[in-house]
Amino acid sequence: MSLFRGTILSDSTEIESALAWRLRTYFFPKTNRQASLFHYLIVHKLQFEKKIQLYENIPAFQSAKRFEDVKKSLRFVQKLRNALAHWELWEKESNENEIVIMNMVTFEKLKLDDKLMNEFKENDKFLLKVFGWKETLREKYGDTKQ
Predict the structure, then answer these.
(1) Is 146 within the bounds of a domain?
(2) Of 21, 99, 118, 142, which is most buried, counting CB atoms within 10 Å of its CB?
(3) Maximum distance among all alpha carbons in the chain?
């Protein structure tokens, strides 16, 4: 469970930072004092949900070719991040090949396994590429020309 939680929380934090930077560069393409203040006093303080909502409501992003794919990936990462951060381990149904976590309010369950982790990694790669975080992408996944 710790490996899933650590990887997903850490990687989703990188994605959130990449999204924040993309929002900042939309409003302030050039780096200057105003851009820095906007980034650290406004965008940086928004919750992940609010950053996604802001992204979803900007017409320039809405008209982008991959907008729906980006939106879908962001929502997937956000939902998974929230589940790992707040749901409980459900030992009764967990085993060495798959870990089950449960939302103790809604009783919704989520199986953490290699398939889910691979799906998360594909979304991570896609979002880092779209948001232009090439160095992070290369550092994490090696050759990104695929």
Answers:
(1) no
(2) 99
(3) 54
